[in-house]
């Protein structure tokens, strides 16, 4: 669409703004537009987000902001959008129902709707309601043509043409029924896995620990399960993940660890644990907080077939080049603009409505 350039430019300026919050301590920079108006206000929103949701620690919020500041650059936005044909047409209103499991988890959908030339109607999760409205206000000041095109609501969604909704498998059934007459993307539960061979370097396993523990394992891109060969020796794995042991000092995580450990012990489940992580053999993909599931495999081809069969349950596969689409160790929480949730091209969907 002809307005794509000014939208891109506004998000590039937003990237510069949030880059000030990409490290601790925050660093105010002179060249950032409207900084006097917004810098202290966003610091306050980060504080509110932390107080409102105990999982949204300052380090996790900063990690999210750092990731987005790296993606919201002129070259990366242009590279992402260059493969699409943004022909001018009447903008529609697209409703987004956002999850609240990790900070700014719905930002990619928000960006995609606006860069496609549509108007956005956002229904946020109560767990994550402080950061995005403030950033939207920044965009409106940087680019006044956004005014009237971005709406947040806590009421029932009305007057929209299409919907992108993210939730659990249970809420997805409700969404599918409720939005059956609208063009929609309905996202369900997904988890990420790693396939290990036993030949991984200590650096790779250490990087894998970031995929497991970042955001306390609450994101769909977090590795919640590993596939391992028979007779796998866990010693190297436990040594490599030890750098995350301070996580047990955080009360919400520690409470989940103690609770899940008690459940496993009372149920007499076999598991390994190191004081901050439990490892349990289980065929499921979604593991509780402070728990990593594992499953043995006999043959690497067998595991490839299983992952293809279960592709609707899996967000990312981490491995040492098992397939072309696999993600390198330590990279699951650094998605690029072209990495779409559930591998559904959001822009393609938005350009067709």
From TrEMBL:
One annotated GO molecular function: acyl-CoA dehydrogenase activity
Keyword NADP: yes
Keywords attached to this entry: NADP
GO biological process, one term: bioluminescence
Xref: Pfam families: LuxC (PF05893)
Name of this chain's protein: Acyl-CoA reductase LuxC
């Amino acid at each position: 669409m002809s307005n794509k350039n000014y939208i891109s430019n506004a998000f590039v300026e937003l990237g510069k703004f949030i880059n000030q919050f990409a490290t601790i301590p925050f660093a105010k920079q002179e060249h950032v537009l409207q900084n006097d108006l917004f810098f202290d206000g966003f610091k306050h929103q980060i504080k509110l987000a932390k107080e409102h949701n105990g999982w949204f620690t300052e380090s996790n919020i900063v990690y999210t902001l750092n990731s987005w500041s790296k993606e919201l650059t002129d070259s990366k936005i242009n590279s992402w959008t260059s493969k699409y044909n943004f022909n001018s047409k009447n903008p529609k209103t697209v409703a987004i129902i956002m999850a609240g499991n990790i900070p700014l988890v719905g930002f990619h959908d928000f960006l995609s709707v606006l860069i496609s030339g549509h108007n956005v109607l956002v229904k946020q999760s109560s767990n994550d309601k402080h950061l995005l409205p403030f950033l939207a206000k920044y965009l409106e000041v940087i680019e006044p043509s956004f005014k009237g095109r971005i709406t947040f609501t806590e009421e029932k969604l009305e007057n929209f043409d299409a919907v992108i909704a993210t939730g659990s498998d249970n809420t997805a059934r409700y969404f599918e029924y409720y939005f059956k007459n609208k063009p929609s993307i309905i996202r369900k539960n997904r988890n990420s896995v790693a396939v290990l061979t036993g030949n991984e370097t200590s650096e790779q396993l250490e990087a894998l620990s970031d995929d497991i523990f970042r955001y306390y394992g609450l994101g769909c891109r977090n590795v919640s399960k590993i596939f391992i060969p028979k007779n796998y020796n866990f010693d190297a794995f436990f040594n490599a993940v030890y750098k995350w042991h301070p996580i047990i000092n955080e009360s919400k995580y520690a409470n989940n660890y103690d609770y899940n450990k008690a459940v496993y012990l009372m149920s007499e489940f076999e598991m390994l644990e190191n004081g901050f992580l439990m490892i349990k053999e289980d065929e499921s993909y979604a593991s509780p907080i402070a728990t990593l599931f594992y499953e043995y495999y006999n043959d690497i081809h067998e595991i490839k077939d299983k992952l293809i069969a279960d592709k609707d349950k899996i967000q990312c596969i981490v491995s040492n080049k098992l397939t072309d689409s696999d993600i390198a160790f330590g990279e699951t929480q650094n998605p690029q603009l072209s990495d779409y949730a559930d591998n559904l091209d959001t822009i393609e969907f938005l350009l067709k409505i």
